[in-house]
Amino acid sequence: MALAGGSFFQLMEKRFWLWFISLLSFTAQAQEKSFLTLLDAHTAQVVEGAHVTLIWEGDSLNTVSDAQGRVELKAQNLLWIKVRHLSYEPYKQAHPKAGSLHFLSPERGQLEEVVVTGQNGPTLSRKAVRQVRIIDAQRIQSQAAVNLKDLLSQDLNFRISEDAVLGSQISLQGMSGAKVKILIDGVPVIGRTDGNIDLSQINLNAIERVEIVEGPMAVTYGTDAVAGTINLITKQSQRRKWQTTANAYIESVGRYNIDASLQWALSAQNQLSLSLGRNYFQGYDPDGQARDLQWNPKEQYFGSLQFKHRQGNSLWRYRLDAFQETVKNKGAIGSFDSLLVPVDTGAWKYPRALDDEYLTTRLNHSLYYHYYPEQGGRWKGFLAYNYFRREKFSRIRNLHLGTEQLFPGADAQDTSIFRMISSRLMYHRKWATKVDYQLGYDFSWEFNSGQRIEGEVQDILDAALFATAEYKPWDVLSLKPGLRYAYNSRFAAPLIASMALRWEMHPSWILRASYGKGFRAPSLKELYFLFVDENHNILGNADLKAETSHNYQLGLSYHYDKADWHWQTEARFFFNDLRDEIRLVAILSPTDTEPRGLYRNENVARSQSAGINWNWRLAKGGWNTELGMAWIGLKNEYAFSDPAANQFNFYPQYRWSISYQFAKWKLKPALFMNYTGERKDLALDSEGNLNTRQYSDYTLADFSLQKTFWQERITLSAGIKNLFDVSNIAVSGTGGGGTHSTAAGSLPINYGRTYFLRCQWKLD
Amino acid sequence: METRLKAFFVAALLFSLVACEPEEELRSGLFVSDQIGQMDMVSADGIDYQYEAYFDLSSNSMKAKNRRDAWDLAFSADPQNPNIYVNSAQFMRVAATRSLNFDSAYTASDFDFEFERVYRFYQRGWMSDALQDPKGQVFLIDRGQDLQGRKRGYYKLQIQAFSNGSYQLRFANLDGANSQVLNVETQADYNYQFLSLASPDSLLSLEPPKDEWDLHVCKYMERLWDGSDTLDYSVTGVLINSKSALAYRDTLLSADSTLNFGDIQAGDIQHHQLKPKTEAIGHEWKYYDLDEGTYLVRNRWIYFIEDAEGTIYRLRFIGFYGAEGQKGNVSFEYLPLE
Predict the structure, then answer these.
(1) Which of A707, A727, A736 is nearest to A719 (CA)?
(2) Is a pLDDT exceeding 50 seen at residue A9?
(3) Shortest CB distance from A336 goes to which of B229, B232, B321?
(4) CA distances from A16 to A19, A20, B215 (A)
């Protein structure tokens, strides 16, 4: 049976290649070119400097692709082409025809990786002027990361916090997630609740790699790119006519996920891909009997459809992503009054609870266009429409009868809708030999409606022109200035400038320095929030201006490559100064004719963060290990308001990961550890006293074992998440300013140690 | 091997696909033998707490219920202790002009208005001092808002005379229009009687006779601390009939998490703490839980109340919502102890 199955697939594979080659031959004949072109399968950019072996009957030739990614054919009837490039997976093709295009898949797991975020074009990460960190598919697989929250919980400089309703939130370089831009293939992710994007809503099943740039990227990406930018790059490479993948994931805490995808190369020019999936989490609470779970049950359905069309030097790509999530936030018994039924001698009390359900829908349409002529400038852009809806339903549940009814309380039912039309177009060209520049526009028009938004719908439009250039006075020195000029329909958009420097002091030593200005535009909710009832009067403020930041970074890196030894180390310092942060301020006026408490958003706060980090990575043979240390400090608004407390509160973070690939057994164990040290911050207690809160330290560690079977068609991963069984960490507070008070509590970090099993089935 | 792998994979796939939330088990009800009191302030059609109500513990009955906008001025019926207060449930306020000239033109923005706050209005409203020696003092009245939140404008009011439960007043719009003279004759059977300035011809007996009620659920004005300053805040709570009833919250018993309400006996009463304090019960037996988006009742807070007949009751609140989830449906359980 097994042999029969194997033969069937081999036969199908052979037929596919015959068909594919004949198709290429047809294309080649039509184009009548005497060369082959090598392209990046993800970005469709030409691949220069690839080592190509051309094999004929009884002869062969070694050559290198030129600046247009071309390889000249010296003779007809080519039997094979074999391609090797440091940044791409080895590639070979039988009977390639003149004029054919060959798409190379970026190499996974190597130190030399190509990045696109904030770059003028695909660039080796080592050559990038701004440091871009990559989390590749191998690490996503080894970590068994289902969503972005799973992945970043094991990353340096990030801190993840959990909210039962708002989901997983992020902190980067000590700054909140409201100041982190999240993109998918360069398109902004919308739907910030309380300023944050729920990372657990960003599934990784269709993600090839994640690129992270710390510090502002506002010149190119605009608002929110203050602390950093996270760009998720979707899977694009395809080397078979059919590729299907199915995944099943089970975790002992009660997570059950499945997804499947299909990629279909309709022709050499056209590709279609589909994916569908479901993630289910049954919820968890340390107290097994509780009804109100600390970790709410969650069910997600998601799917995507992508059509890619290549024509000549153009690439069109349409992508539709759909996502729906239901979170059930069950109330405790007693979270709502019991139903009273009086009788003569007393009364019956029937328990009720107030249950909330949050239904989130995301729909993203994106149309990408890349134009990469053999000579001259390159064009790259997108047009996108993003839709986000979050509905809240509150229901009173009679726990005796099992019946439900809608709760008529204020804020009990709510629907918030965000819609955004966005577009970005970039033109990139080399000018002379020393200047490489990029011009572009960035446009977004966002609409927001909701129960607490003044008026039915509010909109904000932002249109910007930006320019970056990379100037190389010498081969070892690159300067990259950037400028963004924007018009905003709601506030005076700041002029944004940046400057980055890369100095290759030695082939192995690279110094990077940068200054960047970032901004966070006030959200429509902050501008037009309206909550007036008999006891409240909370207003937005249409006169708000953008929060701004200044970021300074200095880094030094060293890399060593010899034979199969690759190691790389980097030390970096950063400093952020944030001004005009938006806060809700109480405004009291005893003579005001309005008799209620008035609160309004104002640009009043200032904060700073600073830190140093060091990272070291080694790859040798099957070994891959990484060690990182960070020391991150934050001085928040309260520190600025109290001279006695005006200092940075630093905390350490250490990260270590190690994996080994047993080639013979196709087995790969991997260990990830991330220690976050004791942390302090300042806050006001309920009586208005300044309070220093202390958060205890914790270590998150995951271990996985991955093995492939059946010619790598099936991959099984099993392991332990949260080895040290961390759940809640202690939070204590001590009052300052002459007042002494203590408070104790806990902060949920994780749901404790769990065991997981993941099966992946690939079929070509 | 491949067949086993496939079977294993399909099993995992199916298992993941069918995982879903289990059906919740039903829970039984709880019987309580204490008496149940209920007062519905009625929140409906987008208007919260439309009514105020009076409850008598000994007869376990709601003695009166009226719309909270039914009156503007309350008059003490005690011939020895005259008092007038305005309806803070409608955000009404008072400003003393320190003038005796009723015919002068007054501008509201020239004066500081005050709410009738809970700790004093039932004994001594802002106009009570003028009643001790009426000389024609002029006050400005901000009529606050109607139930829809619309401003109701201003009046000026002159206190001309008080004698043995009878009040003589004059009121008009600030510009002098709509001037009227009122003679209010109160009945000594009541603590207070009420008047609507929109129809000042008839005195309203909205409050039951003085010995026939113990609890009054209503909106009133409390001065709160908001973290940086004081703030007059409209709250919804329970006031006691401080002319005849005494009450206190037993903080020790309330803090005892092991205490069973049904075990509280007469011996637990701290008699010296029973006080004729209007806001002895107040509004803090419930609180708004921002996370839940609902008011939660502190049902471990224990109150003792002595009514006009001298009976002392144990009491705790158990609900603020009705069967349909409407707020303002105050429910409590209580039992006479001695």
Answers:
(1) A707
(2) no
(3) B321
(4) 5, 6, 86
Separation of alpha carbons A733 and A689, rounded Å: 11
The verdict on B336 touching A (C-beta cutoff 8 Å) is no
Nearest chain A residue to B28, by CA? A400
Minimal-distance CA residue of chain A relative to B45: A408
Question: What distance in Å separates the CA atoms of residue A595 and residue B221, rounded to the nearest whole number?
Answer: 10
How is residue A374 annotated by DSSP? Answer: S
Our CA-based measurement puts residue A396 at a distance from the nearest CA of chain B, in whole angstroms, of 7
Q: How far apart are CA A53 and CA A40, in angstroms?
A: 18
**Does B112 contact A590 at a Cβ distance shorter than 8 Å?**
yes
Q: What is the ipTM score, two decimals? A: 0.84
Q: How far is CA B97 from CA A346, B107, B110, B140, B141, in A?
A: 54, 10, 9, 7, 10
Nearest residue to A537 (alpha-carbon basis) of A605, A592, A586, A589: A586
Residue B225 — very low, low, confident or very high, per pLDDT cuts 50/70/90?
low
C-alpha closest to that of A697 among A682, A681, A675? A675
Position A382: which residue type?
Answer: F
* Contacting B residues, span 261-300, partner chain A, CB-CB under 8 Å: 289, 291-294, 296-297
Task: Please write the tens of the pLDDT for every residue from A354-365.
Answer: 999 999 999 999
Radius of gyration of chain A (CA): 28
pLDDT at residue A618, rounded to an integer: 92
Query: What's the pLDDT at A462?
Result: 93
Tokens found for residue A633: 């400090």
Using DSSP's 3-state secondary structure scheme, residue A643 falls into helix
Task: Read off φ and ψ for residue A158, nearest 5 degrees.
Answer: -100, 150
- B93: which chain A residues are within 8 Å (Cβ-Cβ)? 595
How crowded is residue A755: how many other Cβ atoms within 10 Å of its Cβ? Answer: 12
Least-confidence region, from A59-73, A139-153, A545-559: A59-73
Least reliable range by pLDDT among A103-112, A410-419, B177-186: A103-112
Percent of all residues in chain B with a pLDDT value above 70, rounded to a whole number: 95
> Residue A66 has which token pair?
């030129």
Whether the CB of B20 is below 8 Å from some CB of chain A: the reply is: yes
Domains of chain A and any CATH numbers: 24-104 (2.60.40.1120), 114-231 (2.170.130.10), 232-763 (2.40.170.20)
Q: What is the pLDDT of residues A576-592, one digit of tens each?
A: 999 999 887 766 544 34
The per-residue pLDDT for range A317-362, each reduced to its tens digit, is: 999 999 999 999 999 888 899 999 888 788 899 999 999 999 999 9
Closest CA to B335 of B37, B31, B29, B30: B37
Q: Confirm if A395 and A406 have CB atoms less than 8 A apart.
A: yes
Contact A320, A365 (CB under 8 A): yes
Query: Residue A26: which pLDDT band, with cuts at 50, 70 and 90?
Result: very low
The alpha carbon of residue B127 is apart from the nearest alpha carbon of chain A, in Å, by 20
The pair of three-digit structure tokens given for residue A426, joined into one six-digit string: 């970039």
Mean pLDDT of B32-45: 90
* Listed residue (B156, B77, B126, B118) closest to B280, CA to CA: B118
Contact A409/B109, CB-based, under 8 Å?
A: no
Q: What is the DSSP letter of A221?
A: H
The confidence score (pLDDT) of residue A595 equals 36
Can you tell me the distance from the alpha carbon of A88 to that of A45, in angstroms, rounded to the nearest whole number? 13
Query: What percent of chain B shows pLDDT beyond 90?
Result: 76
| Residue A113 confidence class, pLDDT cut points 50, 70, 90 | low
**Position A756, amino acid:** F
Q: Which residues contact B40 (CB under 8 A, 6 or more apart)?
A: B51, B53, B322, B328, B329, B330
Query: Which tokens is A728 given?
Result: 């809640």
Residue B284 identity: E
Nearest Cα residue in chain A from B9: A759
